[in-house]
Amino acid sequence: MCTGGCAKCLGGTLIPLAVFGFLANILLFFPGGKVIDNKEHLSQEVWFFGGILGSGVLMLFPALVFLGLKNNDCCGCCGNESCGKRFAMFTSTIFAVIGFVGAGYSFIISAVSINKGPRCLLGNSTWGYPFQDGNYLTDEGLWSLCRQPENVVPWNLTLFSILLVIGGIQMILCAIQVVNGLLGTLCGDCQCCGCCGGDGPV
């Protein structure tokens, strides 16, 4: 597959992943599927916006750049004759690195939150984090330590696990585009062969 076509495929995959990541982070503001009165009772990692910023908004820019590469003409990018296909592919590499960082941010936030567990109402009527070092992951009986919000443990665990998987996939796709973009920069795109009076890749 030509480097431009490969980038378009990656961009088309990143967009739905970004949307799912955005929605998963939004749902974390409603623990157990319910609205809580005091926002300070939300887990701290929810406010880091890993899914909204890292896997969501920040991922849309690389995705749109990847999608646009297939439509760039061989003699320039976006109709600008001063920049060629190789430069467009190099630019996509930079955006891929940005996307990798954003996905990595979401991945790390999710991993930390899963290990830490949710903030919840404890038996002594205080709010805190009852779990340590992910011990609740292997002992479902510990979930009863969280009195409120109802079902907050499986809710947070499920959503942050989704964000973890999304972030991991996005990191892999962005890493692929880094390699693809470098190949396009060095070797050109096969679809540019013979254009603008040339005999080879541009």
Q: Briefly note the structural class of the backbone.
A: mainly alpha
Distance linking N and C termini? 16 Å
Strand content: under 5%
Strand tally: 2
Shape: elongated
What percentage of residues falls in helices of 4 or more residues? 55-70%
Strand order within the widest beta sheet: 1-2
Mean pLDDT: 86
Ordered list of secondary-structure elements with their pairings:
Blueprint: H1 3-27, H2 50-69, H3 85-116, E1 120-121, E2 127-128, H4 152-187
Antiparallel strand pairs: 1-2
Overview of the molecule:
The chain has 202 residues and is mainly alpha-helical. It has 4 helices and 2 strands. The protein has a two-stranded antiparallel sheet with strand order 1-2. A hairpin with a 5-residue loop joins strand 1 (120-121) and strand 2 (127-128). Helix 1 runs antiparallel to helix 2. The longest helix is centred in the last third of the chain and has 36 residues, at 152-187. The model is unreliable at 73-83 and 191-202 (pLDDT under 50).
Supply database-style keywords.
two-stranded antiparallel sheet; disordered C terminus; 202 residues; 4 helices; mainly alpha
Entry summary:
This protein has four helices and two strands, in the order H-H-H-E-E-H. It has helices at 3-27, 50-69, 85-116, 152-187, and strands at residues 120-121, 127-128.
